[in-house]
Specification:
Blueprint: H1 2-21, H2 30-43, E1 48-49, E2 58-59, H3 65-77, H4 81-108, H5 110-122, H6 126-129, H7 134-152, H8 159-172, H9 176-195, H10 202-226, H11 241-248, H12 250-266, H13 269-285, H14 296-300, H15 304-313, H16 325-348, H17 355-367, E3 373-375, H18 381-388, H19 408-411, H20 418-424, E4 426-432, E5 442-447, E6 451-456
Helix pairs in contact: 1-4, 1-5, 1-16, 2-3, 2-18, 4-5, 4-7, 5-15, 5-16, 7-8, 7-9, 8-9, 8-10, 9-13, 12-13, 12-15, 13-15, 17-18
Length: 458
Amino acid sequence: MILTLLPPVFAFLLALVPSLKYSTPLTWDIYYHVHNAMLYMDRGIVFWDPLTCAPYGRPICYPPLFHIMLTLLVKITGLGFLTVARFIQPVMAFLIILSFSYIAGRFYGSLAGFLTGMLSISSLFFLRIIMPIPEALAMIFLPFFVYGYCISMENDSKLYPVFTGIILGVLMLTHLLSAAMALAAVLISALAFRISRHAVKPLNLLLIILTGFVLAIIWYAPLLIKYGFFFRPPPADPLSIVGYLNHLGALLTVLALTGLICALKRRERRDILMASWFIFVLALSAGYTVGLKVLSDRILYFALFPAAAMGASIFNSMKVADSRWPVYVLVLFISVYSLCSGYGIASTVKPEVSESELEVAQWFKYNGDHKTVVVSDYHIQPLIVSIAGQPVSAGGYAPGSKDTIDARKYTITFDYTEDDIRIDRVGYIILDTKNRKTPPYSRKVYRNMDFVVYRVEV
């Protein structure tokens, strides 16, 4: 038990470093999620967001559980949304690494569980582990889902599939990509089980899927009936071989590949599950080579758990000169290396938003009209809408955007008319300070080191 708890405690302490160092959350994504949480707090569970993609608005296609969690934490603690987001960073890190260590321990024993947690800390993906985003919440549940599925394939009881299906539903209501990756991994492993002559219980697998979908449909059905569902895939962002090594880390990569070879030799149920999961994610992350629009680093993140678990498993039976002591020394070395690597990440990471962007958002909070639309570069808009409640032309989460105004004509070409302003309800234009031109029909009302805010008047 102590071995299982050590890695999450280390992860908590490491994630505490940037959480105390900076007064804002680390990730830019959180501002979009804070905005959704604020909508829920003000209006209840709603499916329409009138403040982003303004003046049109858009359906809220992002699953709600993370936003509901933020809302509840704010109500319970009495703290602000951004303060809560900042202080759940170490909590998320603790719970993710605890999940990794515990489930890997259930598969391969306590030593492997300990090393799974430590190797995960050594990876560059530790940076994502400490981010307060829905993906992090989903990553806590993902290993439990896979473990529940594995038990369901060995047991005739219908209790395990139902509980596993509930976890799938939670994943679908938290982060759709995580749910899709988890479901794909178990379906592919089920095929691998059949090929390797391990028992598969199709009815239990079907019960898992049906339970998950029934739970998820509580939120998805009203959305689909009223607005439909749409998703704009982002442009592909491939990784080179060096990129793969950088994200997983050289040590974890070597151990994972060694563990994969050992797993394929043993071919036990747990080994087939981990190996098929790992290989599937690696193949999908390279999908850009056949024309798929994938963010390779985001996909590769889902290989972290099976990679670390397989890499850790090779130490279970390892001996040097018929002695285990050299192995324990090696485990100590890996632990120290992992902590140093994790500290290097935690001590150097900086918030993805600048002070200048926050200053602009604060200016709108106290000086904006909270009615007309702000047109600006994409990055600053989630801050403005979440902090100030001012309508913006985009607002973050581009895959969930439908109808938007042409921001380029207001911020780059200045090719717009008075009628365009009235139709688009544009009230403010934000440019960077490098731009020397004043947009037509506007006057400067605020300036800081990086941005100039213009009030549009017709």
